[in-house]
Design goal:
Blueprint lengths: L7 E7 L6 H9 L6 E8 L5 H11 L3 E6 L4 H9 L6 E4 L5 E2 L3 H12 L3 E9 L14 E4 L3 H12 L11 E4 H6 L12 H10 L4 E13 L12 H22 L2 H4 L2 H12 L5 H11 L2 H11 L5 H4 L2 H18 L3 H16 L12
Parallel strand pairs: 1-2, 1-4, 2-3, 6-9
Antiparallel strand pairs: 4-8, 5-9, 6-8, 7-9
Helix pairs in contact: 5-7, 7-8, 8-10, 8-11, 10-12, 11-14, 12-14, 14-15
Length: 361
């Protein structure tokens, strides 16, 4: 191990990935940056995943394997965080793999700018290794040393997927995670990466977003994301995510900015409603009947003038009325209901979809 280089702890949660884990670990052990420790946590696999891990442990002393009862990816990552020795932390999923110079490029991007975290692009591949349609994130160094800059990064870039929700295309400083007691929310099963990134972003003074595609994300037909499309599940998980970051937000920001938590709340809930109409969103809102949700929805709608900052100006009014539709019917606000019927009539006359029909995109 190179003693003159800073150690990178690479965390890999593994569950029933015997067909994929070899490619993942091999890509990491072949890195041009050799100052790494590889923490692989078998989350109660029922296949031969553990025997594969044992083989790599015998082969390379940098590999540290742990075997635990099945508790889910968040608990598995949290356990690994208690075991790290590195100055930097990187997360890799066990069915994905890295470009050979991936770790080196991330470390160089961190150290050359003094950034608190680094974000890279990634490749989407199928099980035959074919490249699929790619996303391109924003790039460049961003100074977030002020509270306003951190708030804007989270609201306008992280929550808009301009730097990605995922943790696996990023490099983190261990000191921030340890000093602030950051961990993955073990009750959250959709969006745990986004919650972790959001809370990390509350404390990071800068981020370096680079153009290199260093991570290969495998699209599997049986992936958890492919099974998590139901509105009810999305709504509940985004609501829990919002609740999970509220106390952190209030701790990290002073009074002027923590009064704007509603903006992050609404963006998260809008994300949970993507591809659904206001009527569908209303029905699940009634079913869940959550006071936290109703409180912050009401607070959001008090700030109509802020919507042009939260969303693109040309659609900000529509996003406002989407929330207004839900709130009006939840609270049986007949005046607003009549106003919205008039608005829908206006849209019909202009041959546009009504709020009952229009789906968030």
């Amino acid at each position: 191990m190179c003693k003159d280089k800073k150690l990178v702890s690479i965390i890999i949660p593994a569950y029933n990935v015997e067909n994929y884990i070899d490619s993942c670990i091999e890509s990491i052990l072949a890195q041009t940056y050799t100052a790494i420790e590889v923490l692989i946590v078998d989350d109660g696999s029922k296949d031969n995943t553990w025997s594969h891990i044992e083989g790599f442990m015998a082969q390379d002393e940098r590999v540290r394997g742990f075997r635990r009862e099945n508790e889910g990816v968040s608990a598995t990552r949290n356990f690994a965080l208690t075991q790290v020795n590195g100055e930097y932390i990187q997360f890799v999923d066990a069915d994905d793999y890295l470009a050979k110079n991936g770790v080196e490029r991330l470390v160089n991007a961190m150290e050359s700018t003094g950034a608190d975290w680094v974000n890279c692009q990634y490749n989407r591949v199928d099980e035959e290794g074919n490249l699929l349609e790619q996303y391109s994130f924003h790039h460049g160094f961003k100074d977030t040393s002020t509270q306003e800059a951190r708030f804007n990064l989270i609201r306008d870039e992280l929550l808009e997927y301009f730097i990605g929700y995922e943790v696996w295309n990023k490099l983190f400083r261990t000191s921030i995670i340890k000093e602030k007691g950051l961990a993955f929310d073990e009750s959250c099963h959709i969006g745990e990466d986004l919650e972790f990134n959001t809370c990390y972003g509350f404390y990071a003074n800068s981020i370096n977003c680079i153009e290199d595609r260093l991570y290969y994300y495998l699209i599997r037909s049986d992936s958890a994301m492919a099974k998590s499309k139901a509105l009810s599940n999305n709504f509940r998980q985004h609501l829990e995510l919002s609740k999970g970051i509220e106390s952190r937000f209030n701790e990290a920001f002073d009074k002027e900015l923590n009064g704007k938590f509603y903006q992050l709340f609404y963006k998260l809930m809008i994300h949970g409603f993507k591809s659904y109409t206001a009527e569908e969103a209303l029905q699940i809102s009634k079913e869940v009947d959550d006071d936290f949700y109703k409180k912050y929805l009401s607070e959001t709608l008090k700030h109509k003038d802020e919507f042009s900052k939260m969303f693109y100006p040309e659609i900000s009014k529509l996003y406002y009325r989407y929330g207004l539709y839900i709130a009006a019917h939840l609270n049986k606000d007949h005046i607003r209901e009549i106003y919205l019927k008039g608005y829908d009539l206006y849209r019909m006359l202009r041959k546009r979809e009504t709020l009952r029909e229009w789906k968030l995109s």
